[in-house]
Amino acid sequence: MAVGDVNSDAKGSGARFNTGKVPVELLPFRILALTTEQDTVKEAFYKLDCYQFSGDVRYLESLFQDLQHHWSDCAWVFDYGKRKYAEWNWLKGMNWSIPLACAGRHLMKLRDGELLDEESGLSHWGHLMCNIVMLIMYAEVYPEGNDLPKKPASQQEILDELKNSHKAQVERMKAELIGYAN
To answer: Structural domain boundaries of the chain?
Structure first.
């Protein structure tokens, strides 16, 4: 499905042509990490997963240490995007799940041993880096685009919440009883 409007200057109208592409943003990336033995790809899947459920860009920023030799690839992909969409189109913003899915798809291609993107002919590492840059920038310039899932509560977190809720209920009941006694 195509997203955004390349001709608009409106915030949130960043365009992406994702029709027919696998919606990997619906998968927890930690599961995809289990499908590879390639250290850099595995680490990237895990860090994408941490970001996916927290929105904390520090997980994405930490990828730059492993990917630092791909900055030129990233620049070439942004140049390709400038010609495909419009210069700085991406900076208008879009739902965060869109570049997250794109990053995941490029990682899956790398996991499968494909180094160059079929459409652009450019490095999948460069495409991955571009999407990471977008996500980091969106935290600052388009926070309203955060449509990431909330991390599901663990059993312990649910029990703790019930305990705290119960404690609050007991305290209210005590206060009511004291009020009746006076």
So the answer is: 2-149, 152-182
